[in-house]
Amino acid sequence: MLVRKEVKPLRLIDEDGLRTDGRRVDELRNIKIDVGVLKNADGSCYLEIGRNKVMAAVYGPREVHPRHLALPDRAILRCRYHMVPFSVLERKSPNPTRREIELSKVIREALEPALFLEYFPRTTIDVYIEILQADGGTRTAGISAAAVALADAGIPMRDLVTAIAVGKADGHIILDLNDLEDKYGEADMPVAMMPNLGSITLLQADGEFTPEEFKEALNLAMKGIREVYAKQREALRRRYLKVREEVEGSV
Amino acid sequence: MLVRKEVKPLRLIDEDGLRTDGRRVDELRNIKIDVGVLKNADGSCYLEIGRNKVMAAVYGPREVHPRHLALPDRAILRCRYHMVPFSVLERKSPNPTRREIELSKVIREALEPALFLEYFPRTTIDVYIEILQADGGTRTAGISAAAVALADAGIPMRDLVTAIAVGKADGHIILDLNDLEDKYGEADMPVAMMPNLGSITLLQADGEFTPEEFKEALNLAMKGIREVYAKQREALRRRYLKVREEVEGSV
Amino acid sequence: MLVRKEVKPLRLIDEDGLRTDGRRVDELRNIKIDVGVLKNADGSCYLEIGRNKVMAAVYGPREVHPRHLALPDRAILRCRYHMVPFSVLERKSPNPTRREIELSKVIREALEPALFLEYFPRTTIDVYIEILQADGGTRTAGISAAAVALADAGIPMRDLVTAIAVGKADGHIILDLNDLEDKYGEADMPVAMMPNLGSITLLQADGEFTPEEFKEALNLAMKGIREVYAKQREALRRRYLKVREEVEGSV
Amino acid sequence: MSRSEEVIPKLEKHKLSSLISKGERIDGRELNEYRPITIDVNCIEKAEGSAIVSLGNTVSIAGVKAEIGTPFADTPNEGVLIVNAEFLPLASPSFEPGPPDENAIEIARVVDRGIRSSRTLDLERLCIIPGKRVWVIYVDVYVLNHNGNMIDASGLAVLSALLTAKIPVVKVSEDERIGITDEWVPLPIRDRPVPVTMAKIGDKLVVDPNINEELSMDCRLTLTVNERGSICAVQKGGRGSLSMNDILYAVDLALKVSKEIRSALPPLPKIEDITYVVK
Amino acid sequence: MSRSEEVIPKLEKHKLSSLISKGERIDGRELNEYRPITIDVNCIEKAEGSAIVSLGNTVSIAGVKAEIGTPFADTPNEGVLIVNAEFLPLASPSFEPGPPDENAIEIARVVDRGIRSSRTLDLERLCIIPGKRVWVIYVDVYVLNHNGNMIDASGLAVLSALLTAKIPVVKVSEDERIGITDEWVPLPIRDRPVPVTMAKIGDKLVVDPNINEELSMDCRLTLTVNERGSICAVQKGGRGSLSMNDILYAVDLALKVSKEIRSALPPLPKIEDITYVVK
Amino acid sequence: MSRSEEVIPKLEKHKLSSLISKGERIDGRELNEYRPITIDVNCIEKAEGSAIVSLGNTVSIAGVKAEIGTPFADTPNEGVLIVNAEFLPLASPSFEPGPPDENAIEIARVVDRGIRSSRTLDLERLCIIPGKRVWVIYVDVYVLNHNGNMIDASGLAVLSALLTAKIPVVKVSEDERIGITDEWVPLPIRDRPVPVTMAKIGDKLVVDPNINEELSMDCRLTLTVNERGSICAVQKGGRGSLSMNDILYAVDLALKVSKEIRSALPPLPKIEDITYVVK
User: Fold this and answer.
1) Is the pLDDT of residue B5 over 90?
2) How confident is the model at residue A251 (pLDDT cuts 50, 70, 90)?
3) How many CB atoms neighbour CB C168 within 10 A?
């Protein structure tokens, strides 16, 4: 028996067009990005968006274990999306669920187009995403964090990958769904892009969109992605400046 | 809670010596055999006997994965007997049960005597049997189908392997038990043979047979096996004619 | 629902200072040790202490499977502690529990200091401990038995390893806890040593000890270990005499 | 089931891609042409519903089993739908025995989302005693021969099996004992969401890719379209990426193709007058 | 437990086979001669029943645990019997730790079928409250040293443990509460089905094969024979085949040998007057 | 999670050991000096309690989830505490994804024993309806960055999360229905058992070993000390051995160090006046 229960809201958008957390339909939640937060990983990133708390770490390019998985002409990319048991209201078993296995796959496929895997034959690049707290949009938060961690690891990329979800609630197309909107809204569509290249690397949806709504949602996703992208760049710049400072300070 | 329930019949053999499905004690159910029904497999066979529906496919001789299983002096034979969840009244978990693991073993040992594994060192021959619908006698149906699929794959054999079950119901020795007879009868004995060589390659039984009944049952099994064998041969002949037609048609 | 129930005793130590099984606080249970009881193993030992019945077998030094586990400069030591399902009042699942996994680790680490693993590079020494009946103190009984089995296998050792538990019941520090004392007592501390070297190779505890009680318990453990050690030596000597007899008899 | 990585010779891949860039396909189809579909329903009598679907040489079988069980805690008044997909080693030389890998799990979840998003099954009508007993509908789908586009083949098999499945009317007594009656009725199905998978090869999208096209593609996009012409599930798969134009073109294509496919499906059952639970 | 493939040197195999073709065995036994059997019962006090059985150097231990649990849905008025076999890595250099492999599962199932077919345990007498509470009898059997013929060693250990097991009489109150009394009674056992395993080597059958004979055999045949002289379980194992004559000869041999073995077993308990459940 | 064997270059190991033999450590600490501890609590709002603990660069996160469930059969009047530890592959280049290996299981069990032995949680106060419904308290702990001494980092994270966790008061009606009230109260915690891990390197013991010291050590010893200065859990780990003197020295060291550490922990909650279950 669960002890923390959510109450289903009467409506998700009020008469002023505001959402349960006070946002407008096309507004992102607060975003906080810290780069290089884990000492052992080659690259790492801690990202908060609303109440989501996500840690991403990258190891590699490094030797592949078991060795028979290595490819002669390129690196392999491995990706694990995982939620810790206390990240959600009802404790989740620590073992990987079918959902986590699917998301690990689509996240890997969302990141892979940005990488030059052919530069690193016979190696692996391992991306680990831990959801420490979940509040709607963990897969897109995980992708945005992982892309920053890949950059932090110094792995050459065509572009960052940036992701956000759009959806539908009370008939409105909305940006960056929170948990309530995800659960009680009419539709949900996570999107990942390489923003500068205009390449969409993840696209999923459930719920119902008319073709017109679908197009409107895609356009709104692009707007959101541009805003998240700016935050990713800024966080990487801060990290770069800090490292430069440390290096120069040590001279 | 199950929604389809079987009713236990008052008796399995009536005063006219007829069984619940109208057969005489020494009569087979209808048999239908189609060869070469799956495009990807090297050999395949779809077999119906009564309401049993069985698909068998053979791949090989082919490279062994993982490689350390390969033998320097002969092929390995691997065999997997599996029931799909909706093949039975009460949904079966898709994971292999202990029963399926045992049957995979005895089926492999029933087929192996017919093969010249020493012709194909360092390779594997893989036999896959899927029970699409089960109605008593799936292991024997699976063996008969697998033998045809092996022949369809062009794998040299000493003889076909042919299998049928015999058993005991209401004190009578009967041929080719259906599900009711299997469940409510007194005994069940699946037998597989290489009919031309007189070699018995599978023999199992449960239930009680006096030594005399046991011998009578074995003899009845041989009769049944001869009849199934004729159907297997005929199906292979049809397949051969069809392939010849196609080849000649294409010239 | 369990059918054999233990009754929690009113007290563990009576007014005469005697325990539920009549022992004094510093007294061991009866010990029986038989060496070389399994024909296939390179070394083996059957040990009873009170109602504990433990079988230990050693295979090795031998080739390592899978091979990638082999070390170029020393043998690996593997150890498996396992309880059979009927060894306890409530049937235990035959699958390894988290407890068995932890105990396998600490037992391995208790035995390893006694071995010259560097003498046998690229090999494994495998120690298997089966608890046939459990009555408090199975891990220490397992260690004492395994050490004898290692000696029986002719594996060179710095010293035997000898183990016993001490603990606290009704405020007394006691030696060699039985199941009731383990369950209803205040504390439990298993200890393993190489007695001649004074080296402690296993030390665990739960329950509460003041620092003074802790020291008293450690000293009592040493006393117990000396007594068990004498039994181990004696059993190995009997085995040696018997083997010599057989060898000389056969000449 | 785990799937070993399959590869296609470079020469063949090159040939296939250059054909497609000219608007032609190796099997003679138009870029927007589906393979012939055949659907054979109720082939497994012991299942509550079943269907074998062929898209060319890709063959899937799905079976429905219904049991009476307990609802999920957060939906006490709804029946339960469980979709499971596995790859059988008999279906392809690259499949190996074992539990479902990420590819099989992805298929099951994409098919499941299509059905769920479109509220295909009226789960509330599958409630027997609120909070206590509901219908649990299992659909298991297996590919028997894999020649590409397993998502659509599996989705259509699952849908066809559900469309033709029957369950008994149940009788609930005053003291909440459940009896099975002899009246068998169709499942409360209200929609037929059709998955349409397209592969991006070079700068073209081809519909219903065969195995060689899949092995040559940059990525794929599945759009599931319901009776109202709405998009009710989307899944991009594979290593590559799509442009906005690709996606908009894919929407138009999926809307058109899904109508053709839907005409091959079993009809929606008449369920308005059915009482699933009697007193 | 998984079993790595064990092999026997060709020379030894040849010697063993040619001896057998002359009617002799490497350990001096007749072809139809069983190894000496010793049975030690009630060695594990915490088990409801237990037995260690040696066939020469093959040693098995079986233990019975009884719990009160729920019946299977299709046999609401019967107790439950569960037989489990595993191979311990201490029993043989070729055994490795791990879950039961096909060989251990085969043994458990063959032993189980022998006991079940002969209705050895009167499961109806193990029902406590019909449809609700029954005795669940677990028998776990482990080979401690493997020197051939693990099926018979395991079957005899399981049977001996069952024959000497005791469970308490239970008391059921009006409101269906179950109490355990202090009166312990034997299990309702009515038969002693004895497995007899024979190995085919060359054109001969040898009874109770040792490990080297097993490694040299074409195949094996296990016939389980009950008190009435009926055959109640059969299992052919191994890669080879048997002729009709082999089988008929095996039947005669098993009937004869099983009688000798049965005389070494604990006697059938007197159970006619036992009331397992009191009000 | 399985942990591949990590190694440290011999030269570095030698340098580290010879420093320690002179009473110095590679990171400048005294032999008996702990790394700086930081504890950040209630960082995960969806958990009932949570804490991130850093010992230098070793970082652990623990979260508490509370559910209402059934008690164990042998402790019908007590709540249930379940401690689980796993190693995440993001924490170290030597960790791999997978179920907990022996190292993670050891940590969970040592942490669990420390808490249990000292009766840290008053489990009887977590009983809601005797024999039927109790609080089940899960604590999951994950190392996020492994730089040595995961046992202490995990133990302190678990303890801090428990110390700051809150659960709602529950209301039990006459007919035993359970309601959740709006009043959230701390867990019934009575003690703060502190684990102190020391590594033996050469003939010295160093407290709170970092990763390089762990890779160079003979063995480690963890002594858990409670508020009363008693030792409530002990665990020796690693291949080497300890002398009696080592252990006696370790006891003194642990008593002293544990007090310092305890001062960094959240305070014990006031729980005397709390009623966890109301009618």
Assistant:
1) no
2) low
3) 25
Q: Domain of residue C151: give its range.
A: 31-250
What residues of C are in the E interface, CB distance below 8 Å? 1-5, 38-41, 44, 51, 53, 55-57, 59, 62, 65, 80, 82, 84-91, 94-95, 126, 128, 130, 132-135
Alpha helices in A112-210 (DSSP H): 138-152, 179-184
Name the domain count of chain C: 1
C41 half-sphere exposure, CB direction, 13 A CA radius: 34
Nearest by CB: C102 against F105, F230, F239: F105
The rounded distance, in Å, linking the Cα atoms of E258 and E235 is: 16
Count of beta carbons in the 10 Å neighbourhood of residue D67: 17
The tokens for C88 are 């306890």
The nearest alpha carbon in chain A to F144 belongs to: A38
Angle between helices B138-152 and B211-250 (to 10 degrees): 30
Q: Residue B189: which CATH number?
A: 3.30.230.70
What is the per-residue pLDDT for C49? 98
Are B79 and B115 in contact, with CB atoms under 8 Å apart?
no
Asked if residue C13 belongs to a domain, the reply is no
Question: For the packed helices E244-263 and B211-250, what is the interaxial angle rounded to 10 degrees?
Answer: 140
pLDDT, tens digit, for every residue of A206-216? 999 999 999 99
Burial string for E140-172 (b: 16+ CB within 10 Å, else e) reads: bbbbbbbbbbbbbbbbbbbbbbbbbbebbbbee
Domain range enclosing F162:
3-278
Mean pLDDT of F164-193: 96
* Confidence (pTM): 0.95
- The contacts of residue A244 (CB under 8 Å, 6+ apart) are none
The reply to whether C18 falls in a domain is no
Say which CATH number the domain at D80 has. Answer: 3.30.230.70
pLDDT for D2: 42
Q: pLDDT tens digits for D94-110?
A: 999 999 999 999 999 99
In a domain, B6, yes or no: no
Q: How far is CA A238 from CA A45, A244, A245, B132, F14, in A?
A: 12, 10, 10, 61, 39
Establish how many alpha carbons lie within 13 A of residue F67's alpha carbon, considering only the half-sphere containing its beta carbon. 15
Structure tokens at F82: 């379940």
A199 contact partners, CB below 8 Å, separation of at least 6: A113, A159, A193, D241, D242, D243
Q: What is the pLDDT of residue F2?
A: 42
How many whole angstroms separate alpha carbon A46 and alpha carbon A148? 9
Cα–Cα distance measured from residue B157 to residue D211, given in angstroms and rounded to the nearest whole number: 32
Question: Measured between beta carbons, which residues in chain B are less than 8 angstroms from residue D47?
Answer: 86-87, 133
Q: Is residue A20 part of a domain?
A: no
**What 3-state class would DSSP assign to E81?**
strand
Min Cα–Cα distance to chain A from D8, Å: 16
What is the arithmetic mean of pLDDT over C6-32? Answer: 94
**How confident is the model at residue F1, as a pLDDT?**
38
Average pLDDT, chain B: 96
The C-alpha atoms of residue A34 and residue B35 are separated, in whole angstroms, by 63
Q: Within 13 Å of residue E221, how many CA atoms lie on the same side as its CB?
A: 30
CB-nearest partner of F242 from C2, C200, C214: C200
Number of domains in chain D: 1
Element (H, E) at A208: strand A199-209
DSSP 8-class letter at D31: T
Quick count: other Cβ atoms within 10 Å of Cβ C20?
Answer: 17
pLDDT at position A8, please?
Answer: 86
Residue A66 has pLDDT above 90, yes or no: no
Using a CB-CB cut-off of 8 Å, the residues of chain A touching D247 are 200, 203, 218
* Chain E nearest CA to C210, separation (Å): 35
